[in-house]
Design brief:
This protein is of the alpha+beta class. The chain has 8 helices and 22 strands. A 12-stranded mixed beta sheet has the order 4-1-7-6-3-2-11-12-21-22-10-8, with helices on one face. Strands 5, 13, 14, 15, 16, 17, 19 and 20 form an 8-stranded antiparallel beta sheet that branches. The protein has a two-stranded antiparallel ribbon with strand order 9-18. α5 runs antiparallel to α6. The longest helix is centred in the middle third of the chain and has 21 residues.
C-alpha cells in the first residue's frame, strides 16, 4: 500500500488539545521524553484486524510517497493502542488492537505547526480537496469557550473488603510459589461531567513528566497521564523503562522506596526486561542514574534499559514478548495474565495496555496507566499494585487509591 502525506505549515490560535472534539475520532499524544506533540483525526487505514502487537510489522510494507523528509524529519503515521483484555461491552467501540493511519495529523515542534493530510493513490482528488477544505475550516472557525465547572461524584467505589477477597485469591498463588508477582487492579466508577478539552488541559498542565494521551472513538474517550515508557526506538536504539514500587512524593520518599519489598518488586520487572532484551542483543546497558521517577504526587523506582536491535522483524517480536510486563501483569507472565483474566471482576480494556505511535524513524509507546474511560456522564478510573510475598493487602489497597487520586484530586480541585 502506498500512502501520500501532504505537509503544510498551519497557524492555529490554540493549543492542540483544544481541537480534540472537532471530529468523532481523534487522538492526542504528548511525550515528556521526545517532546513530540500531535493530534490526529479520522481514519484513513485501520489495523484493527491484527491479533498481536508483532503484526504491526505490516506497516513496513507501507510506502510513503512524495514525502519531503527535510520539511518534517520524523512523521508519526500509525497511531493507536492495544488493550490488556476486553471482557465486556463497557469498552465498545475500542477493540483489542486500535492502530490506524489517520486522515489528518497536526504536529507541533518548537517553532512551527504542520498539518499533514494522508491519502491513498485511488482517493478521489475532488472529494479529497473538499474533505480537506472542510477540515481546515473547522480548525480555523473553532471558538474557545469557557469550560463549564467539572462535576465529579462517586458511583461505585471498590471497598477494601471487595479488593481483599480478590487479592487473597491471587496471593494464594504466590504462597504456593507458582507466582513471584501479580498485579491486581481496581475499577472505580464516578458520575462525571467535564469538557474533554479541559480534561486534557488539566492533565498536561498539572501532571508533568508524564505521557499525556486521549483517544476518542465516538462517545468513548480513553485518557491518561502515564509515567512509564513501555518502548521507544530511535533509529536502532531501543529504550525501555522498568518502573515499579510507589511512594508519596514527600521528604521521606527515598527511605520508603529503599525497603526490601520495593527492591524485590522492581527487580522482578527489571530481570524480566533484561532477559528478553538479551535474546536480541547481549549488549544491554542498564542505567540506574535516574533511580526515581517523579510523576505528580507519586514517586516510583526506575531503571532504564538501552540496547540496539537492527531488524524490523526482531523489533516487533520484542514488542510482543514484553507485553504486558510484570509492572502491570506479573511473573511468570502467562500465568499472571490468565489469573487476572479469571479473577479480576472487571474488564481492564485499554488500562495497562500500551498507547503511542510509529513514525518514519521511530516507535514510541507508553504503558497506559493513570488513566480513565469517559463515556457520556460516566467515568471509570483504574489503578493497580504489585503483589509479592512481602506485600500487605491493606498497604497495596491504599497505594491503588493514591494512584487513582492523582486523577480525582485534579478534578476535585477545579
Amino acid at each position: 500500500m502506498t500512502i501520500f502525506p501532504k505537509i503544510s505549515e498551519i497557524n492555529l490560535n490554540y493549543d492542540l488539545y483544544n481541537y480534540f472534539d472537532i471530529t468523532d475520532i481523534s487522538f492526542y499524544f504528548y511525550s515528556p521524553n521526545t517532546k513530540i506533540e500531535f493530534i490526529a483525526f479520522d481514519i484513513l487505514h485501520n489495523f484493527s484486524y491484527i491479533t498481536e502487537l508483532s503484526n504491526l510489522i505490516d506497516y513496513s510494507n507501507i510506502k510513503l510517497k512524495n514525502f519531503n523528509s527535510n520539511k518534517l524529519l520524523d512523521l508519526p503515521f500509525i497511531i493507536g493502542s492495544s488493550a490488556f483484555n476486553l471482557k465486556n461491552s463497557n469498552w465498545e467501540p475500542f477493540k483489542k488492537h486500535n492502530w490506524f493511519i489517520p486522515r489528518f495529523l497536526i504536529i507541533r515542534d518548537i517553532e512551527k505547526t504542520y498539518l499533514v493530510t494522508f491519502h491513498k493513490e485511488d482517493d478521489d482528488k475532488t472529494e479529497l480537496k473538499t474533505i480537506t477544505n472542510n477540515f481546515i475550516q473547522k480548525l480555523k472557525s473553532l471558538k474557545k469557550v469557557k469550560n463549564p465547572k467539572i462535576k465529579l461524584s462517586p458511583n461505585k467505589i471498590t471497598s477494601f473488603e471487595e479488593f481483599s477477597n480478590y487479592a487473597n485469591s491471587l496471593k494464594d498463588f504466590i504462597k504456593s510459589e507458582k507466582l513471584l508477582k501479580i498485579v491486581p487492579a481496581v475499577e472505580n466508577i464516578y458520575n462525571f461531567s467535564a469538557a474533554n478539552t479541559h480534561l486534557i488541559e488539566l492533565l498536561k498542565t498539572n501532571l508533568l513528566n508524564t505521557f499525556i494521551y486521549a483517544f476518542k472513538l465516538n462517545d468513548s474517550i480513553f485518557f491518561g497521564a502515564s509515567p512509564e515508557n513501555f518502548f521507544t526506538k530511535k533509529e536502532n536504539q531501543i529504550t525501555i523503562d522498568s518502573l515499579a514500587s510507589t511512594a508519596p512524593y514527600n521528604s521521606n520518599y527515598k527511605e520508603q522506596l529503599s525497603s526490601l519489598k520495593n527492591y524485590n518488586e522492581q527487580k522482578i520487572v527489571s530481570d524480566f526486561i533484561a532477559e528478553i532484551l538479551q535474546k536480541y542483543n547481549n549488549d544491554v546497558e542498564i542505567d540506574n542514574s535516574q533511580k526515581f521517577k517523579i510523576a505528580g504526587s507519586l514517586v516510583h523506582l526506575k531503571t532504564i534499559f538501552k540496547t540496539k536491535v537492527e531488524s524490523q522483524e526482531d523489533t516487533f517480536k520484542l514488542l510482543n514478548e514484553l507485553f504486558p510486563t510484570p509492572a502491570v501483569c506479573g511473573f511468570p507472565q502467562k500465568l499472571s495474565y490468565e489469573l487476572i483474566n479469571k479473577y479480576e471482576p472487571f474488564s481492564r480494556g485499554l488500562y495497562s495496555g500500551v498507547i503511542g505511535y510509529i513514525s518514519t524513524k521511530s516507535i514510541e509507546m507508553a504503558v497506559a496507566i493513570r488513566c480513565g474511560l469517559k463515556n457520556n456522564n460516566s467515568l471509570r478510573l483504574y489503578g493497580g499494585a504489585g503483589f509479592i510475598k512481602e506485600s500487605d493487602i491493606e498497604n497495596e489497597y491504599n497505594e491503588i487509591n493514591s494512584k487513582i487520586s492523582t486523577i480525582t484530586n485534579l478534578l476535585k480541585n477545579e
